[in-house]
Specification:
Strand 8 (161-162) and strand 9 form a beta hairpin. Helix 9 (218-224) packs across helix 16 (414-426), helix 12 (301-310) crosses helix 14 and helix 14 crosses helix 15 (393-403). The N and C termini lie far apart (52 Å). The protein has 18 helices and 19 strands. The strands form 7 sheets. A 7-stranded mixed beta sheet has the order 15-16-14-13-17-18-19, with helices on both faces. The radius of gyration is 22 Å and the shape is globular. It has 2 domains: 2-212, 2-Layer Sandwich (Nucleotidyltransferase, domain 5); 217-471, ATPase, nucleotide binding domain (Nucleotidyltransferase, domain 5, 2-Layer Sandwich). It has helices spanning 37-51, 90-97, 100-107, 116-123, 136-145, 152-155, 170-175, 198-204, 218-224, 256-260, 283-294, 301-310, 331-341, 350-376, 393-403, 414-426, 434-444, 457-463; strands at residues 2-6, 9-13, 22-27, 30-35, 66-69, 132-135, 150-151, 161-162, 167-168, 186-187, 192-195, 210-212, 234-239, 243-249, 264-267, 273-279, 382-386, 407-409, 448-450. The structure holds beta-L-fructofuranose. Beta-L-fructofuranose binds at residues 62-64, 82, 217-219, 240-242, 244, 278.
Length: 471
């Protein structure tokens, strides 16, 4: 994406879009799900070629995943996808020496099986050959500039970052058996990563082009672009493959209630804290579409969403945060199995299945918004939905109903906008703080409002656990 920023002006243009996803390859463990990171880098270069004249480059991506470099700065193996099963059981093993409570007290992180800490432990012997660990945006930035570093918002998702001290948690790393040499110096959004290495600068015809650190965790960039009015009590849902549901805080929330609710305290741009829960997200829907396509029965998203809108409300609901929805696979079968287990009749048509997923997503948003509010003692008067989910009318409408407050939907390309705004500020634009950036979003981006209409959400929530089901 290229962005143009000026007084009262903020525009994005899509330059190049390419698919991303896991690549499963056989090995002695059975198989491993990797990322095609060189393919991604090739597309980045092609995109830079297509972009024409730009003032800077900022990179954001999903979190937690990384590449390991050897002493010569060469990539050691192909980065592994966080949905791979190599981390199965690892958290339990690590927590024998490093109790979950202690991990949370230092890092403030939600327990997820794929936290970088657990992935690094799963590497085992391979770590001995590694000199540096670079998270995906830092790895791409390294290839562009030759500069090694760890951008802070993404570092905060590793479970190796001390959220209060704002440094790497070297002690935790050592106790988990992770060499601290792997953790490069931290950099902040707005810092200059470097300029293009000479070969690239020549090839692309862009001498001196700077790479600027942004909120390199996509969710951190997306939260920058939440168009909240400064004085409102807002929650946000960054709704894409994942749904990140929570509040923006000034200080981490590390109490018992936050731990019990399994919330995370990720670091945001300008030192904010993203107090949120990872909800499984639209992944379950896209995997459903993929399952149908693989079977030779492809479905069009707009069509199944229209069918879902006409299907009966809250006929069946599932807890999308259940671990069985994490790995790739046959989601329709998994949804049906969970319905049976919780004493509900599985959806019988495509529309009903999609309705079940979207109802369940809205229910998960309701629960996370309520818990965020309870744990922090802060009321929520409006929910901002940003990211791809903001263009899903059914989801936004049901989210307003489920949460019982208005939903403001948009912008869709929140991560890209947040990236561009932080970059523009670093390059001299007059955007002193988050409030100024958000004002510019409100002035320039289309937003849509959904009023809550009610519904039987509390009763549906009780069905999630299958309470009262006789086995
Ligand atoms: C969203 C996201 C989430 C992170 C997940 C895995 O794209 O970055 O914030 O928990 O992907 O990296």
């Amino acid at each position: 994406m290229t962005g143009t920023v000026g007084p009262g002006r903020l525009e994005l243009a899509e330059v190049r879009r390419f698919p991303n996803g896991g690549v499963r390859v056989a090995d002695a463990t059975g198989s491993t799900l990797h990322w095609d990171v060189l393919g991604l880098y090739r597309e980045v270069l092609a995109g830079l070629g297509d972009a024409g004249a730009v003032a800077g480059i900022g990179i954001d991506s999903w979190a937690v995943d990384y590449g390991l470099l050897d002493a010569d700065g060469r990539l050691l193996g192909n980065p592994v996808h966080y949905r791979d099963s190599r981390t199965d059981g690892v958290a339990g093993r690590v927590q024998r020496g490093l109790p979950a409570r202690e991990l949370f007290a230092v890092t403030g992180l939600q327990e997820l099986p794929f936290n970088t800490l657990y992935q690094l432990v799963a590497e085992g012997e391979r770590l001995a050959a590694a000199e540096t660990m670079l998270l995906i945006p830092d790895l791409l930035g390294y290839w562009l500039t030759g500069r090694v570093g760890a951008e802070r918002t993404n570092a905060s998702t590793t479970q190796l970052y001390d959220v209060r001290a704002r440094t790497w948690a070297h002690d935790l790393a050592e106790r988990a058996g992770i060499p601290t040499r792997l953790l490069p110096a931290l950099r902040d959004p707005g810092d200059r990563v470097g300029t293009l290495v000479p070969d690239l600068a020549r090839e692309l015809g862009k001498p001196e082009l700077p790479v600027v650190a942004v909120g390199s965790h996509d969710t951190a960039s997306a939260v920058v672009a939440v168009p909240a009015e400064p004085s409102t009590n807002f929650a946000y849902v960054s709704s894409g493959t994942w749904s990140l549901v929570g509040l923006e805080l000034d200080e981490p929330e590390l109490g018992e209630a936050a731990l019990a609710a399994n919330f995370t305290n990720e670091t945001g741009v300008d030192g904010k804290i993203r107090f949120l829960r990872n909800v499984m997200g639209l992944w379950v829907l896209t995997e459903t579409l993929r399952t149908w396509a693989v079977r030779g029965e492809p479905a069009d998203l707009a069509t199944v969403l229209a069918e879902a809108a006409d299907a009966p409300a809250l006929a069946a609901v599932v807890d999308l945060d259940a671990p069985e929805f994490l790995p790739p696979g046959d989601m329709p079968a998994r949804v049906a199995a969970v319905c049976r287990k919780t004493g509900q009749r599985p959806p019988e048509s495509r529309g009903a299945l999609v309705r079940c997923i979207v109802d369940s997503l809205a229910l998960a948003y309701r629960r996370a918004v309520r818990q965020a509010s309870e744990v922090t003692g802060r009321p929520v008067d409006v929910v901002h939905v940003v990211g791809g989910g903001a263009r899903n009318e059914l989801l936004c409408r049901l989210t307003a109903d489920a949460c019982g407050v208005p939903v403001l939907a948009g912008p869709v390309e929140a991560a890209a906008l947040g990236n561009v705004l932080v970059q523009a500020r670093a390059l001299g634009a007059d955007l002193p703080d988050l409030a100024a950036m958000r004002r510019l979003i409100r002035e320039t981006q289309p937003l849509r409002r959904y009023e809550p209409r009610g519904g039987n959400w509390a009763a549906a929530e009780e069905r999630l656990s299958g309470a009262g089901v006789v086995a």
